[in-house]
Design a protein that fits this description.
The chain is 83% helix and 0% strand. With 221 residues, the protein is an all-alpha fold. It has one domain: Phosphate transport system protein phou homolog 2, domain 2 (Methane Monooxygenase Hydroxylase, Chain G, domain 1, Up-down Bundle), CATH 1.20.58.220. Helix 5 packs parallel to helix 8.
């Protein structure tokens, strides 16, 4: 009976969720540097940075599988399990999209057209904060679900608003950049590559916002 009760109070799944968030947020600057390297065409670190992101994605994926595979059925949680796993899925999709964007970028080793390159770097810089905010958001949530302090709840809501603002700006820039691609690039193959690349980068902010929305739902109870 005692062991059964103890199994209900194992360590919080938010501890591993924070480890996963750390991996995701760690890739943010690498992603920005890799894009800048590729656009610049004089930087030799693109492949190394891409490999580093792939390593982080693999480590994050292992943490995700561990969370999913070792969650005791009877564990007591402060949040709905479905919402918890939905949050994990969206957070994981952030780093998946970062990795996919870099792989897609690598398919054109000759670099990005000058008329688009600077806009692409700016687009990435706008999106990067949405990645970086995931780790502090989960850290604050972990503290909130232990102590239920209003200050932590307000801090989470503030981060969620910041992520939403980034996604809103990213949506606007994505539409502008795709329009610019269609009006300035003549080669249809380049148009296809760049539009797909921009959409993939834009999805990073989308998944970050989805994660923020799920976190907002979890603290609403």
């Amino acid at each position: 009976m005692r062991s059964t009760l103890l199994s209900l109070f194992r360590k919080s799944p938010f501890e591993d969720l924070k480890r996963h968030a750390d991996k995701v947020s760690e890739c943010a600057k690498m992603f920005q540097q890799a894009v800048e390297c590729h656009v610049d065409r004089r930087c030799e670190e693109f492949d190394n940075l891409t490999d580093d992101v792939a390593r982080l994605e693999s480590e994050a994926d292992a943490i995700k599988r561990n969370i999913r595979g070792h969650m005791p059925r009877g564990i007591l949680m402060a949040v709905d399990k479905f919402q918890f796993f939905m949050y994990l899925r969206e957070q994981d999709r952030v780093i998946d999209s970062v990795e996919e964007a870099l792989y897609w970028l690598s398919y054109r080793p000759q670099g990005i057209e000058d008329e688009i390159g600077k806009d692409l770097i700016f687009f990435v810089k706008v999106i990067v904060p949405s990645i970086e905010k995931l780790s502090p958001m989960v850290e604050t949530a972990t503290r909130y679900f232990k102590g239920w302090f209003k200050e932590d709840r307000d801090a989470i809501k503030s981060i969620v608003r910041d992520i939403r603002q980034v996604e809103h700006e990213a949506d606007h820039l994505e539409r502008e950049l795709i329009h610019r691609i269609f009006t300035t690039i003549q080669d249809p193959l380049q148009v296809f590559h760049l539009v797909r690349l921009v959409e993939t980068i834009g999805s990073i902010a989308d998944h970050a916002q989805n994660a923020g929305d799920m976190m907002r739902a979890m603290i609403a109870k």
